[in-house]
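Reagents: none. Just compute today. LacI family DNA-binding transcriptional regulator.
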Amino acid sequence: MVQRRPAGRPTLEEVAARAGVGRGTVSRVVNKSPRVRESTRLVVEQAIAELGYVPNRAARALAGNRTDAIALVIPEHQKRLFAEPYFSDLIHGVGDELADSEMQLLLTFVRSDKERRRFVQYARAGRIDGVLLASMHVDDPLPDTLAALGVPTVMSGRRSAEEPCSYVDSDNVGGARAAVRHLLDSGRTTVATVAGPADMYVAQCRLAGYRQALDAAGRPYDPALVAAADFTEVGGRAATERLLRDAPGLDAVFAASDPMALGALGALRAAGRRVPEDVAVVGFEDSALARHSDPPLTTVRQPIEEMGRTMIRVLLEEIATPGTAWRHVILRTELVHRASA
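Predicted 3D structure written out:
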């Protein structure tokens, strides 16, 4: 005689009993938490399939104050979203990692105090389960405000070396150091840099890597060889024009982003300088811009899509396990050699 399961929707407890695990483990599997061993996940998924368990997402959301929505917050004008490959690559990585989950992604721009207050009210009302933050400036209070509200939050990059929040970052210091060391090792004697905005920690780190490479080679730091810009192509071109006026003998430029490196190429071309014969140029990111520039750009590859995927994994873990420790993840960078240097 075939034994039948009692009629009605199978429960989380029944799945846990069938799999021989606790209710919390089943919940973590259902919520796609990475904090489950693969062998345990397979056992739970088999129990779910055998029982025909379907998560009651509406009831679960009400019981746990869940919305199944997360926000990706970008504190920049939307024009930069479409002009800079960094943001599109980050969103691509985030979207890929979310593809198999039930989470909805909300893209939000926060460019003023008014928009920041409005977003905080939205988060305080419990309309999102977590937040991803990109392109943070050092004085931005939003991560601290979200932490005070108890909203799980993960940053792309960080505001300082002592960031009290989960983040996923690249080895910006090491990547910049490798780029400048390559220029010096190839015989360049006057290496300038187009640095990023001084109020962004990522720019501070890349400038620190530039200075470390100079120090290691016994070269003095010359402020005339440093011009700051805003990570855009227009900004990179203007900064390179300033460098050419202040230090006309430069024979190499390290730009702290690929768009700024493209701006540098344009300024050098307009000034009659050949790349790489007269001036070598290295960027940072390894975006599509680098591969298709003229000449193709030597650059530091940072795994932006992997940053987005990792941010989602860390955030889902924080959502599934409230009160978990902050995660600080640094991904490796790699110098990619092309014709510009």
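The chain is about 45% helix and 15% strand.
Action item: order primers for follow-up constructs.
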